[in-house]
Amino acid sequence: AGMNGTAIENFVCVIFNVSFMNCTWHVGRIATEDTQYFLYWRPSKKEDITECQNYIKDNWGRHTGCRFQNVIIENKNAYFLVNGSRSGQNIHISDYIIVEKLTPPLNITVNCTEASHRCSISWQPPRTSHVKRRSCFKYEIVIEKK
């Protein structure tokens, strides 16, 4: 339910440095200055739903995002809800996207031998908030001669 054009647009959550997450959105196309949005989330089915504690606001004081600290998503199922009201009327609800910006691989080592003109390169997977399997990562190595 809710008036068309009041739903948020471009809802995206970005996880960075393993445990920080920013969720942002654009206000609805016909949202007036008195429209207010509220973000609720639950990292897994086992946890309670909580409202954002640190909103990002636009010039009219409307919530346009949220900053989270100490985020732990134990599996791929996190649940988000953005709702709100405009002059007492409900607004539409939309879909979401989560992106995780990974840290670089850890403990990179390079061992080269002059005799064979070969090098061995090894590393550990990057730290991540929820991906546990090494097979989920693909790497690209760029070798430059100096």
UniProtKB/TrEMBL annotation:
The keyword Signal applies. Transmembrane segments: none annotated. Its main location: membrane. One of its GO terms (molecular function) is cytokine receptor activity. One of its GO terms (cellular component) is external side of plasma membrane. This is CSF2R factor. Residues 11-97 form the Type I cytokine receptor cytokine-binding domain. It is a single-pass type I membrane protein.
